[in-house]
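Why do we care about 3D structure at all? Because function follows from shape, and shape follows, mostly, from sequence. That is the central idea of this module. The next example makes it concrete: a single protein chain, its amino acid sequence, and then its structure expressed as tokens.
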Amino acid sequence: MVYELIKNLDREMFLPELMVLKRKGEMARKVENLGIKVSCLDLGERVNFKYLFKLPFGAIKLWQKFKQEKIDILHCHLFQANILGSFLGRLADLPVIICTLHMFENKRMRRLFNCLAGKFADAWVAIAFSLKKHLEIENHISENKVYVIRNCIELNKESVKEKIPEEISKLSKPIIGTHARLHPRKGLDILIYAFKEVVKYFPDSHLIIVGEGPEKPRLEKLIKDLKLEGKVLLAGYQSQPERWLRCFDIYILSSFQEGLPISLLEAMSLGRPVVASEIEAVKEVIQPGKNGITFPVGNIKALAQAIIELLNNPGLAESLGKEAQKTIEREYSLSRMVEEYQKLYLELWERKSSFQKPK
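And the structure:
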């Protein structure tokens, strides 16, 4: 989402620059390829002794950058950037500071820090209406500081037209799939248990999980314990996940908690029938029976039944997929998201300054 926003900002009004706290990953390199300046504090991936040792020096460096470059609008993303950026930005007397909440913060200490960041930031952006409530009620952010700008996606990506991944071309159908970080919050063990039931009725079916994460060893063991080797493919990180998504007969979101998952929007934009857990953010996107199917969070039996229902009824699956695609085209286009962010930037800037627009 950050890359798409930076890429599509109106350059006649805005001159974007990217600052990353941890390391230059793929997204940062893609931004550099656009000819945009990228700087990195290189604090490291994990919060450990080395990270804490580097943090004060990194904070000073960031504060100096804010002061020297006379940044007009600071837009922070994710927890550590929100906290560090809002505090140092206010210390450097930056005109406009915006924090962004992409996911629920369940830890009390994190919510406390968000509350403190709310004192320094001019605005918070929630990527879903459910996250807006979470900011106001659980994080005690003033209602007049919270804006909702939903995640959106680029439609008709060229990579979708590329050749089907070789790993998929070898598999028999139907193919059930998901794209998620391998993390307990994603409920991927629930999906694997449900797929075990699906195989009883559709023995030629396969499950593909695209993504990397700390849960990989545990999921590999679960697949082995359930005797699903050869039936479940952990495809790992893929730089163009949409090439995989378009090959899925059914897309699954089994998460226990989410902000507004980009992968779900991607699958819907490709006309894939989706089955998703009944979390708050999903309720904002999916109308059960019209553009997708939902199931109670963590309910293995209900998930298995929903998958089996769609596999037994191709007409229903096709209808849900078409409506899902229409929903994304109508409400979640990238141009809409960029326009809303630009409007917010200018609104906050003009509130602070009446003599110029940001450059």
